[in-house]
Design goal:
- By secondary structure, the chain is mostly helical.
- The chain is built from 1 helix and no strands.
- It is rod-shaped.
Length: about 40
């Protein structure tokens, strides 16, 4: 594998994984809130 490919792909992969992590965490929080509200009603 060419080192230039890693140099270009690494920041893109890092940014994508960071976004998925934060969006996923927010989605889980929303889902828990939705479930909690569903039980209370």
């Amino acid at each position: 594998m060419d080192a230039r490919l890693i140099l270009v792909a690494a920041p893109i992969v890092l940014a994508a994984s960071w976004a998925v992590f934060h969006i996923g965490r927010a989605a889980v929080g929303q889902l828990q809130l939705f479930i909690k509200r569903g039980r209370a009603a």
